[in-house]
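Hi R.,

As promised on Friday, here is the backbone we talked about, encoded as C-alpha cells. Could you run it through your design pipeline when you get a chance and send me back a sequence?
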C-alpha cells in the first residue's frame, strides 16, 4: 500500500493530505523507466569500450598476433625473393652461359596470374589488402621457384652431357697443320676468284695437296655427303648443341649420309671440285643456323702462338679460293 503524504499548514496549525494526480504518477514512472534504460545502455557502452571483457581482450590479442605474423611472413617472403633473384641471375649469366644455353626470359620467370576473381574471396575484411598482397607475393614467388627448379633440372642434364657436348663442339682443324701448304683465306669479305666480286666468305680455306685427309672436327652425324655445283664434293655434319660444319671441294668423300662420326675420323680428302681454282678445303662452322668464324674453334690442337699466326693470316684482305 502506498504511503500517504501530508502537508503542514502554519496558518491553520493543521496537516492536510497531499493529493497526487494519477496522470502525474504515470509520467513519473515512465521517466524513471527511461532513465533506467538510458543508464543501463550507457553502462553497457562504457563496459564494452572501456572495461573490455576477457573474450574481447583475447580476440584483440589474437588479431595483433596475426598482424605481427603477417608482417614477419611478408619480410621473410621479401628475403626469399631477393635470394631467388640472385640465383636467377647466376643461372642466366653463369650456369646457362657455361653450357651455351639460352637464358630464361624475365617474362617467363615473373609472369603473373590471370583471372580477375582469383583473390575475390579475400575481399571485404578490414585486413583484406594486407592478406591479398601477401597472397599475391607468395603466388608469384612459388611460380618463380617452379621455373627456377625446372631450369636447374635442365642444367643438371646439360652437366651430365657435358662430356658429350665437349666432344661434339668443333674444336680441331679439319686438316692437320703439318700437312698444310698455307692458310689461304679467312672468314669475312673477300674477292671471289671466279665471280670477281667482293662477297662474304663464310668459312676458311686451307691449302693442301690433293688427297690430303680431312678430319671431322667434332662428334656428330653426317647429314649430307654428295656433289654440289658450287661446293663440289661436300660433307655436312650436325654436331648437336646448335653446331654444324661444312667441308667442301673434296677430291673424294670418305663417309655417307646418316653415319655417326667422331672427332678425328677421316671423312674425305682435299680436292679441287666445284667452283674452285686450286686444291684446298673450304671449311665452315655454323652456330644456331648462322655461320661463325671458324678460327675460334681450333683450341683443340693449336698453341697460343700458332693461333695468333693463323689469325694474322686469316685477317689479310685477299682473295678466296672459292
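Update: got your reply. Pasting your designed sequence below so it's all in one thread:
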Amino acid at each position: 500500500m502506498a504511503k500517504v503524504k501530508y502537508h503542514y499548514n502554519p496558518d491553520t496549525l493543521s496537516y492536510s493530505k497531499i493529493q497526487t494526480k494519477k496522470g502525474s504518477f504515470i509520467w513519473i514512472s515512465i521517466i524513471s523507466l527511461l532513465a533506467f534504460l538510458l543508464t543501463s545502455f550507457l553502462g553497457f557502452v562504457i563496459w564494452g569500450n572501456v572495461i573490455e571483457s576477457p573474450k574481447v581482450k583475447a580476440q584483440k590479442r589474437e588479431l595483433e598476433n596475426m598482424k605481427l605474423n603477417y608482417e614477419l611472413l611478408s619480410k621473410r617472403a621479401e628475403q626469399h625473393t631477393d635470394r631467388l633473384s640472385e640465383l636467377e641471375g647466376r643461372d642466366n649469366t653463369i650456369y646457362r652461359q657455361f653450357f651455351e644455353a639460352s637464358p630464361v626470359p624475365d617474362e617467363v620467370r615473373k609472369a603473373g596470374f590471370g583471372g580477375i576473381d582469383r583473390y575475390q574471396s579475400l575481399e571485404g575484411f578490414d585486413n583484406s589488402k594486407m592478406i591479398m598482397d601477401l597472397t599475391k607475393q607468395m603466388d608469384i614467388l612459388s611460380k618463380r621457384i617452379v621455373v627456377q627448379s625446372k631450369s636447374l633440372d635442365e642444367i643438371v642434364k646439360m652437366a651430365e652431357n657435358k662430356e658429350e657436348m665437349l666432344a661434339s663442339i668443333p674444336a680441331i682443324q679439319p686438316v692437320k697443320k703439318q700437312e698444310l701448304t698455307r692458310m689461304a683465306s679467312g672468314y669475312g669479305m673477300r674477292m671471289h676468284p671466279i665471280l670477281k666480286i667482293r662477297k662474304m666468305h663464310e668459312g676458311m680455306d686451307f691449302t693442301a695437296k690433293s688427297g690430303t685427309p680431312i678430319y671431322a672436327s667434332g662428334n656428330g652425324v653426317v647429314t649430307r655427303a654428295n656433289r654440289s655445283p658450287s661446293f663440289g664434293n661436300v660433307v655436312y655434319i650436325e654436331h648437336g648443341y646448335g653446331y654444324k660444319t661444312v667441308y667442301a671441294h673434296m677430291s673424294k668423300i670418305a663417309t655417307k649420309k646418316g653415319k655417326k662420326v667422331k672427332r678425328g675420323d677421316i671423312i674425305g680428302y682435299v680436292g679441287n671440285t666445284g667452283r674452285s681454282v686450286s686444291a684446298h678445303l673450304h671449311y665452315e662452322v655454323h652456330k644456331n643456323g648462322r655461320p661463325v668464324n671458324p678460327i675460334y674453334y681450333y683450341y683443340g690442337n693449336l698453341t697460343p702462338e700458332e693461333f695468333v699466326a693463323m689469325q694474322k693470316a686469316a685477317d689479310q684482305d685477299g682473295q678466296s679460293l672459292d
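One thing I noticed while checking it: Residues 54-98 form the longest helix (45 residues).

Thanks again,
M.
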